[in-house]
Each structure stands twice: as structure tokens, then as C-alpha cells.
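Hi there,

I know you've been waiting on this one. I reran it after we fixed the sequence typo, so this is the corrected version. Both the input and the resulting structure follow.
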Amino acid sequence: MARRRTLLPGETQAAAALTEGWIHLPACSLEELAD
């Protein structure tokens, strides 16, 4: 199992997963999370 961490305030599960490298979202979603 991938290790889990506490979500930051306002951070979604998907964003946390992306940050940890668990999943790869479509480019449009990556652009939304870039800032």
C-alpha cells in the first residue's frame, strides 16, 4: 500500500495523491493544480 499523509487545508484527496505520485491526472487537471 502507498503511504498516506495528512491532507493540507483545502487539499483534495486527488491533489494529495498527485503530489505523492500515486496517480496521473489529465493535463487539464494538472494545469488547475499547478498554481
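Quick highlight: The mean pLDDT is 64.

Best,
R. S.
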